[in-house]
Amino acid sequence: MGEVEESSGPPPGSEGVPFFSQAATFGKLWPLIEERINEVFATGKFSHGRQVAAWEQELAAWTGARYAVGVNSGTDALVLLLRACGLQPGDGVLVPVYSFVATASSVVLAGGRPQFVDIDPDTYAMDATAAETAVTPESRFMMPAHLFHQMADMAALGAVATRCGLTLVEDSAEGIGMWQDGRHAGLHGKGGVLSFFPAKTLGALGDAGAVLTDDAEVAHMVAALRHHGRLGPTLGDFSAISTETDVPGHNSKMDDIQAAVLSAKLTRLDEDIARRAELAAAYTERLRDVPGITRLPRVVERPAHEGRSAAVFYVYLIEADDRDRLVAHLTRRGVGTEVYYPTPLHLQPCFARLGHRRGEFPRAEAASARALALPLHPDLDLDEVDRVCATIREFYTGQPT
Ligand SMILES: *Cc1c(COP(=O)(O)O)cnc(C)c1O
To answer: What's the confidence (pLDDT) of residue 7?
Structure first.
């Protein structure tokens, strides 16, 4: 324990490795970003203007969705999607018990009740057999989340949803670029979401999100709900929206500055995804034989889509013995890490009233205790991967090589 109390930061003479940075990416793309931002200034419209409408079309084309609707965060995208799909007060929504808290808090915010499901340890996503067991007469929706580097098994989950009469929606906030069976993440049921939080695979300059759907009604309702509940005849054409309010809505519009930045960054997304894959492969090669690391990311082979991949390394997640002391060691050496997700959702204070206990979801609880994400972003270089891996090896063996 004494080690943890030593002064933090890298020792003199060695450089640290931050968990996340996008300074270099922004640097390279700056001329294009600046050009797009200047267009926003030229129109003088900073909210739900032309850049948002143009971005929605680009995003729809890139993902193959019929509709992409920009909103102000991934979390709002989930709330609006659930409402647009007809969630009624008290409806049960099956959600994975191991995920970011918004997967379940969005259900509560939309008026529903989260019904937790344990994970498939191969994908860290909702397990189909456990999902079927969790269904009750109150269950109306199933909302799996795609985490870290690959999607949930959508064929198996889709079959359960169909058998049990559940509407399938996806928390695909982390899923940009992930494809399964010819469809992008978020398009395997009624709809899904994307988050453009800065640290996500495609990050904005602040918060932003989107709903993806092939369903015209869902798209129009999301477009209404993001703008105080005003239904308009044409998606993306705010001038045509009536001032009569049809349903109580939210104010969750996307900023045009964010749309401009995202549209510029989209031009580099394929390159960024390829770089992430290279870095992930470099980690795997260097960490394969390190004692104490009990698990490296496994990619479950599934058909994706022509020229597209099933796996996109948003996060490089390992499982490790003595994880918290490893984190302290890495922190002391200036290596940034993140624990995804330190508290499984059934043990989060905000869901205490659902009445769950420790021990109910053993696979999620085990992952929460052992999982650790290492730095992975397109700005990272191989020397930094070497330093991270040497620091991990040093922790377990006392020797950096
Ligand atoms: C990031 C994330 C969200 C929320 O997205 P925000 O844009 O941060 O609101 C929801 N679910 C998952 C799985 C996420 O990773």
So the answer is: 44
80 close to 248: Cβ distance less than 8 angstroms: no
Instruction: Pull the structure tokens for residue 163.
Output: 């058998």
Bridge-based pairing of strands 191-195 and 167-170 is parallel
Which amino acid is located at 216 in the chain?
A
Q: How far apart are the first and last CA of the chain?
A: 25
- The amino acid present at 44, given as its one-letter code, is G
How far apart CA 335 and CA 376 sit, in angstroms, is 12
Domains of the chain (ranges; CATH) run 26-266 (3.40.640.10), 269-397 (3.90.1150.10)
C-alpha distance from residue 360 to each of 93, 135, 341, 356 (Å):
18, 16, 17, 7
| Mutational pocket test of ligand 1: of 81, 146, 195, 315, the residue with most ligand atoms within 8 Å of the beta carbon | 195
Name the pLDDT band for 14 (thresholds 50, 70, 90): low
Cα(212) to centroid(ligand 1), Å: 14
Asked if the model's pLDDT at residue 196 lies above 90, the reply is: yes
Region of 322 please: left (phi>0), alpha (psi -120 to 50) or beta: left
d(CA 76, CA 78): 5
**Angle in degrees, CA 361, 367, 369, rounded to 5:** 100
Cβ–ligand 1 distance for 59 under 6 Å, the answer: no
Give per-residue pLDDT as tens, 203-226. 999 999 999 999 999 999 999 999
Residues of the chain by 3-state class (helix, strand, coil), percent to 5: 40, 15, 45
